[in-house]
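A protein record in our archive is deliberately plain, so that people and models can read it alike. The tokens are whole numbers drawn from a learned vocabulary of local backbone shapes. For reference, a complete record is included directly beneath this paragraph.
>
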Amino acid sequence: MKTTLTRFATAAAVTAVIGMTTVGSAQAEDSGDPIIIPIHNWSSQIVMSNAVGQIFESLGRNVEYVTTDSQAVYESVRLGDVHLELEVWEGAFGKSFREALEKGGLHDAGDHDAVTREDWWYPMWTKESCPGLPSWEALNDCAELFATPETGDKGRYLDGPVDWLKHGKERAEALGLNFTVINAGSAAALWAEIGAAEKDKKPVLVFNWTPNFAEAVWPGEFVEFPEWEDGCDKDPAKGPNKDALYDCGNPAKGYLKKAAWDGMEDKWPQAYCVLTKISFTNPQIAEMAKLVDVDEQEPDEAAENWLADNEAVWKPWVEACAS
């Protein structure tokens, strides 16, 4: 864990980069009003938001953080109630993002280098009991392995929190899966489910995603559902069940985008420039999550430490916008 002195050194390093900015440049033009950054309920997004906020603060910008629903945030960005979103996951939030884009008021601020996937997942010890995996068609043959007193003779699948809108129940119904879908209260509840099953190597099926720290702690696989087709979430003709939606898997190589309020570039041109340069990789995002979920650091501290350890990553973003 870094000392306070180290964290001050991080801020000083950022300030040194900003010192290259000439008087009267974009830095001086940025508004003194706070840049409002939304916070959601998974660790990488919280740490990333704090890291970017700390970079903005070292540019001399004011920053505020607000807890915001991860689906409704795109309407908030569109209206300028918050000013950006740093993790637009294609599988989870692509639909809400596209709907907001169509209304106008926000725009695509560029992609991260990271490639995402979000779907039903199991640790590798589960496959030992259900060798037909990762095919989704093996699930019904093994449903009793996942049954709990809560689900009776049906298997139990622990989906993400309700506000992530993962449509696990619709998926199970559309594909005729003998599973009861339960929503976790938080990302932490998903990790607790896996951890509790690990001791006895109990088969377990949960919602998971990449990038996050879990893939390094618990090797596993995603269930391979029918391949994603554009429109599978709104056109029953897509996917194998012509009478239902959500009968496809999520995109296996999804994007991770940033979104920005249309007014951000004019109001905070330098901060906006930095936002467009930001691009995190899968390992970098997994490390951010690990600092909180494994190392038990507070998100702001984790952000400070990540910045201190990764100056070569973020300094070029700031330098590119310093004149």
Notes: The first strand starts at residue 35 and ends at 39. Residues 117-222 form a domain with the D-Maltodextrin-Binding Protein; domain 2 fold (CATH 3.40.190.100). The chain has a mean pLDDT of 90. The radius of gyration is 21 Å.
